[in-house]
Amino acid sequence: MSLTDYIGQVTTLTVARQAAFGYFLTNGEEDVLLHENEMVENTELTEDQEIEVFLYIDSRDRITATTYIPEVQVGKYGWAKVVEVKPGIGVFIDIGIKKDVLLGEEDLPVHTSVWPTVDDLLYISLRVNKNNRIYVKAATDPIITDISIKATSKDFNKNIQGHVYRTAKVGTWVYTVEGFKGFVHESQRKVEPRLGEKVEGRIIDVKEDGTVNISLIPRKQEALDEDANKIYEYLLLRNGAMPYSDKSMPEDIQERFGLSKAAFKRALGKLMKNGLVYQEDFWTYKKEEKNDVE
């Protein structure tokens, strides 16, 4: 087979001879240069030695060999980081070789607002065009399904983190660090996340097939402002009951919380609106645990 048949892949070649700036490798019919800059540090080769290399086309349209073997190859998927964004062209991704690889705009979302940004992670493979140049190939839904594990009912309501592998107006698809395949309905996100963005949320449903529905909207207590959090944390320290309410004296509120009575009432009102507390006989109580996870 020709060396061009192995572009974007790993192949084993034989050291033919040493050159001024590296070694020429051969498959018996064609030679390719392994430049010293493309060799893992402290690599020493001898004539007729066999070596595994990754082949790609360099900026001068030459086949180039490297001993830096990327996880991402033609037919092999892996996680890789975005290192540059070029509007009108696409995003460039570091797969672990000297040359960054392009994911073209035709394979990205229509709206650039949800394009990946620098340091976002994508699960990708490589493809080779008719000119033997390699490009990024983003994982499709079936590929993510293949690497996913099934969630169980025990995973319901757990906090999760993951990366977006597909996004659309109707929702967002996420692969979590646990290995779950998840979907975020548009009603469960405040903004549409970027492709490749790391998101945090919680599991709100476990489907029969082991996939999960995720909400990116904070839990009620996580959405509180600073004053409401201060009051709620004090309430938790007192095992869910405190002798303060919207009827308390301003000086008592100021002494305990450092808040004006108006600010205290606003914060308390927010806690009640979020279903976290209730008032009774001049006291404030934490609601039952079930209300915290709804």
UniProtKB/TrEMBL annotation:
InterPro entries attached to this UniProt entry: CvfB_fam (IPR014464), CvfB_S1_2nd (IPR048588), CvfB_S1_3rd (IPR048587), CvfB_S1_st (IPR039566), CvfB_WH (IPR040764), NA-bd_OB-fold (IPR012340), S1_domain (IPR003029), WH-like_DNA-bd_sf (IPR036388)
Highest taxon, organism lineage: Bacteria
Domain (S1 motif) ranges: 157-219
Gene3D superfamilies (UniProt xref): Nucleic acid-binding proteins (2.40.50.140), Winged helix-like DNA-binding domain superfamily/Winged helix DNA-binding domain (1.10.10.10)
Family per similarity comment: Belongs to the CvfB family.
Name of the protein: S1 RNA-binding domain-containing protein
